[in-house]
């Protein structure tokens, strides 16, 4: 997790809002491939996250969350030839 900002701190409500990049990595051998000369990783769009296994991660005691979306989902996915997946999403959370 890479925290961008912490704001809206409320002593009365005992909560705060944070903006951050939520990053995860794992290895899925089903996604491994033979590397081509000069190409050892694939960079794919957010739509691929709906077609591959992704960890079901959650934040305990979270009150609300949203994933930032401008015109497209703000998600970065890199798949290395050995099946290592790196996923980064821009999020906002109220805790």
UniProtKB/TrEMBL annotation:
Name the record gives this protein: Neurotransmitter-gated ion-channel ligand-binding domain-containing protein
Single GO cellular component term: membrane
Domain of life: Eukaryota
InterPro entries associated with the record: Neur_chan_lig-bd, Neur_chan_lig-bd_sf, Neur_channel
Entry-linked SUPFAM superfamilies: Nicotinic receptor ligand binding domain-like
Molecular function, one GO term: extracellular ligand-gated monoatomic ion channel activity
Stretches assigned to the Neurotransmitter-gated ion-channel ligand-binding domain: 1-94
């Amino acid at each position: 997790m890479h925290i961008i900002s912490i704001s809206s701190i409320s002593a009365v409500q005992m909560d705060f809002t944070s903006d951050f990049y939520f990053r995860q990595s794992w290895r899925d051998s089903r996604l491994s491939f033979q590397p081509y000369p000069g190409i050892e990783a694939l960079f794919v769009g957010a739509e691929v996250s709906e077609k591959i296994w992704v960890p079901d991660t959650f934040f305990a005691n979270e009150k609300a969350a949203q994933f930032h979306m401008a015109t497209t989902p703000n998600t970065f996915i890199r798949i290395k030839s050995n099946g290592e997946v790196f996923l980064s999403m821009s999020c906002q959370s109220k805790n």
